TrEMBL record:
It holds the Pfam family Methyltransf_25. It comes from Micromonospora echinospora (Micromonospora purpurea). Keywords: Methyltransferase, Transferase. The keyword Methyltransferase applies. It comes from the Bacteria. InterPro entries: Erg6_SMT_methyltransf, Methyltransf_25, SAM-dependent_MTases_sf. GO terms for molecular function: methyltransferase activity. Residues 45-139 form the Methyltransferase domain. The keyword Methyltransferase applies. One of its GO terms (biological process) is methylation. This is Methyltransferase domain-containing protein.
Length: 257
């Protein structure tokens, strides 16, 4: 991976980063977002679907921000050990929680970020209303995730070789960049300031294919990455900020989900 694309990532062991990423090297996604979403020491960051928390560690070490690393499926004790190994125990707090029902204060975070995870919970319009109450007024949302080159209404929009894997593998959660722009702004709670293909996406894909092309467990991912000569799927980055419109709050004891 060219260092000019991700110079900060070059100081981390690549094998370690790839081992602890749930897909492509997540540190490349984090660094790409921080190139367009400026962070200041002391900011409070909500890392949604953090996986093994190496995205949270990177943010804390590189930018001096405080991070709440939230994931429902990963043991927070294991994440805590990784956090301590990198000397970030005073900056990163691991939590096991459902991102759709966060046990966290309202109007608390300066930003929320999601790396290769937002599509798993963020396609539900109700999620945004609930999550944004945790951001301060004018707080920001940053996303790096998979995308398609065009909108797909159903599996019938695809060639026969992709239809079943589209349904079985949950690829219907992956959308075009313009779909995400529309989805995130329809409530009036967010204004999208940037939404674009991820610089370096081709290099990230090439590295992934070099690692997993012959791995049967990754055959579905490889198929979609190589579909339409590599032009069907890719990655995008998006930055938005909370508008002055207030999310509707539910009565105490009730859940908006």
């Amino acid at each position: 991976m060219p260092n000019e694309l991700f110079p900060r990532c070059g100081t981390y062991d690549r094998d370690w980063a790839e081992e602890h990423s749930l897909g492509e090297n997540v540190l490349h996604f984090v660094e790409s977002l921080t190139q367009v979403m400026k962070l200041r020491p002391g900011m409070r960051i909500l890392d949604l679907g953090c996986g093994h928390a190496i995205s949270s560690i990177f943010l804390a070490r590189e930018f001096g921000v405080r991070v709440w690393a939230v994931d429902f499926g990963v043991d927070p004790s294991a994440n805590q050990r990784r956090i301590e190994e990198f000397g970030c125990a005073d900056l990163v707090q691991p939590l096991r929680a459902d991102v759709r029902a966060l046990p966290l204060p309202q109007d608390f975070f300066d930003a929320a970020v999601a790396f290769d995870s937002y599509r798993y919970f963020g396609t539900d319009q109700r999620f945004l209303t609930g999550m944004l109450r945790h951001l301060r007024p004018d707080g920001r949302l940053g996303i790096v995730d998979a995308c398609t080159s065009r909108d797909i209404s159903s599996a019938e929009d695809l060639g026969p070789d992709l239809r079943q894997e589209w349904l079985d593998g949950g690829w219907y959660l992956v959308h075009s960049i313009e779909w995400w722009r529309r989805h995130l702004t329809r409530t009036g709670l967010l204004e999208v300031t940037l939404a674009e293909p991820l610089p370096g996406s081709d290099a990230i894909r090439t590295r992934y294919l070099d690692r997993f092309r012959d791995d049967p467990a990754e055959a579905e991912m490889v198929t979609f990455m190589e579909a339409e000569e590599g032009g069907f799927t890719g990655s995008f980055r998006l930055v938005a900020h909370r508008t002055g419109r207030q999310p509707l709050l539910e009565e105490d004891g009730e859940t908006p989900y």
